[in-house]
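Let's study today's protein:

:::
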Amino acid sequence: MNVYCKGIINQMDMAIDSVVKLINTLNEKDLDIKPTDEKWSIGELLVHMSVICKADFLIGLGASEEELDLYYEEAEPKANLKAITSTLIDNYAFFRDAVAGLDDTELLRETTSFFGAVHSRYEWLLDTQAHFYHHRGQLHAMIVHILKREPNVQLFE
């Protein structure tokens, strides 16, 4: 496996593991809590996080907006902890397998997203990692500052 892909997978393994641990600190009632009126609830955030890995990978492949909308429609789980966790793990497995198969040529190939961004496949992978880390931070902050719980989950090595 390419050294760059190996590094991304190592970091994403930890990120996924920490999110599963954060999910395990929640109960079903927590999913309906919405810290800010115009923003996502904890459940909505988790549903989004559960599909990020595959969705962002598809964007990096050049999927159309219609293809992404269909993916979200079919892939987004019901807002319950078991479905969210299962979807997160399944979509990460897709991402992990797809990333493991990329060679140097593929990593350097540029694609244009349906919203006009042009990146190499490697940059799309970094973007996916940043996107997931961003939402993991939001989730952690909601647990700590809104639910007033200390999850005791390590976020970085």
Remarks:
- The longest strand covers residues 110-112.
